[in-house]
Amino acid sequence: MENEANGMENKSWNQAEMPIDLMRKPEVDSDRFFKLVDSSVQGLRECRLISAAFELGVFETLKIPLSSGALAERLGCDPVLMPHFCEALHSLGLLDRFEEGVREEGEKVQTVKKGAAEGEYKEEPEDISQNQNPDKGTKNDGAVYLVSELSATYLLESSPFSQQHYLAERFRNVERWARLPQIMKQGPDIVEKGPFFGEVVHCMAENARCGLLQETVRVVRENVDFTNVKKLLDLGGGHGLYAIAFSKLNEDLQAFVFDLPPVTKETRYFIKKYGASRVDVIPGDFFKDEIGSEYDLIFSSFNPGGKVPSLIPKIAAALNPGGVFVTRQVPDEKMKSSPLMSLDWNLWTFEDVKKGSSGYSFENSVPFNEYIETLGNYGLEVFRALDMKDGSRIVFAWKVA
């Protein structure tokens, strides 16, 4: 025991005598490391902030101006934390803040109301006495909060441009990344194809309404004579918004949306919503089933099978002579720059359809340029290719008579 004690004493003495150079810096610059970690944590904070505000109903509640105290009371939240919570949302541009002081009953304040035109929001005076005056006689430290124009446009359920399904999908993605250690050990999540596309179709519809749909329809209309288009197929069309919009360009046009049965159930919802009587659905799996015939135009936008050459003969056979095939995808050279996106794509898979290793590709997919070159082998002659603002490429090819 005495020898052991002496050994420990000597070890402590040696450690104490070892010189430590406090002025020595790491050979690798620390700025890069701290910026990487801090920016990652900052992104997580902002994501969780938006997620919590959405879950708590902050944006819907703040369609009328409220102090942080009144908001906390309405939502059942901590009144001490709520001012900080509101200020954080304000810093992201998701809430407007007004210095109102004490508001008496009946005093008029500004609120956001939907205008007469679709998607138009304007500020109008509202008598808060009609809203039971939640802040009557209550001091609010000089600040009231209200949904910003950004939030009113994209986060309110009543907005035609609401992105609530998109947010829900993004938050599900965040939860998957929270399980990254588990997935790395157990392998990718197995997702059932039908229900997955049935859910994501609403997310894609919301995204399309915010500019993608309008730009795409404009470009297609400028390059295709719709007076000659009487029958159209939106292949893997999901929500069907493209087919619905195209049907408006020719009153004699009959459009069809081909997609999986669980998806076409959702497509019917959008057909009814937009009163598209000349749009119908064809449920099926385009890898296995026939897609119809005698089409003047076949349109495919971000179709999961849009880089699979084995589908080209089926597409060519379904077109009338002189008919046009329009396909839109993201070129591979614009997708290889994000290893994080490739990892994200590979964290989940379908049970009966194998995905490719790179982002948004499937088994038997080829590079988009190679896919386009293959069109000529089946009598489809490319006459135009255009790069779009979002980084995708839209290609036009007609069937040689």
SSE inventory with pairings:
Blueprint: H1 2-17, H2 30-56, H3 58-61, H4 68-75, H5 82-91, E1 95-98, E2 108-114, E3 121-127, E4 144-147, H6 149-154, H7 164-178, H8 180-186, E5 189-191, H9 193-223, E6 231-235, H10 241-247, E7 254-259, H11 261-273, E8 279-283, E9 295-301, H12 312-318, E10 319-329, H13 339-346, E11 348-350, H14 368-375, E12 380-387, E13 393-399
Parallel strand pairs: 5-11, 6-7, 6-9, 7-8, 9-10
Antiparallel strand pairs: 1-4, 2-3, 10-13, 12-13
Helix pairs in contact: 7-9, 9-10, 9-11
Keywords: Methyltransferase, S-adenosyl-L-methionine, Transferase
GO molecular function, one term: protein dimerization activity
Biased composition (Basic and acidic residues): 106-122
Strand content: 15-25%
> Are there runs of 5+ residues with pLDDT below 50, and where?
101-140
CATH superfamily of the largest domain: Vaccinia Virus protein VP39
What would you call the structural class?
alpha/beta
Q: What is the total domain count?
A: 2
Biggest β-sheet: strands ordered side by side in the sheet: 8-7-6-9-10-13-12
- Shape call: globular
How far apart are the termini? Answer: 99 Å
Mean pLDDT: 85
Rg: 28 Å
CATH classification class of the largest domain:
Alpha Beta
Q: Please provide the count of β strands.
A: 13
The biggest beta sheet, please? 7 strands, mixed
